[in-house]
Amino acid sequence: MADCAEDIVAVADRLGIERFYTVGWSGGGPHALASASLLAERVIAAATLASPAPRDAEGLDWLMGMGAENIGEFTAADTGEEQLRAYLDQHAPELAHATGPDLHAALGDLLSEVDGRVLTGEFAEYLATCTRAALEHGIWG
Asked: Quick one: 128 and 75 in the same domain?
């Protein structure tokens, strides 16, 4: 997770951004938190949404309470890159044109009750816009 801090600094410096926020969604959460910790002099605040705990945390059943979609994706990822790409390609069309409410619905049981209450309005639209842009530019697969 810590390796991304150097990349974040490079991008921020290139854009002339001295101080910034970090936001991580799902697997991006640990990266946002690591960056906030390592770049404390530059990060104003960090936020995460539906972010997992460390997979190897002692005494943790990492999959417990996760939605079926996560279990399917992590199983594909554990199997190999080809299986993960096939899994993501299968689900990308559903999100390629998603609005905020569409994204909320598509995430289904991946959202906790708390996360579901937050993923509304402008924030939901922002995440839907980011998701569409990632898919449009091939970031997903």
From this structure: yes
- pLDDT tens digits along 37-93: 999 999 999 998 777 778 888 999 988 888 888 888 889 999 999 999 899 888 888
Which residues constitute the domain of residue 38?
1-51
Alpha carbons 39 and 17: distance in angstroms, whole number? 13
pTM of the predicted structure, to 2 decimals: 0.60
Collect all residues with Cβ–Cβ distance below 8 Å to 63 and sequence separation of at least 6: 70, 71, 74
76 with 28, same domain: the answer is no
With beta carbons less than 8 A apart as the criterion, state whether 41 and 30 touch. Answer: no
Rg (alpha carbons) of the chain, rounded to whole number: 16
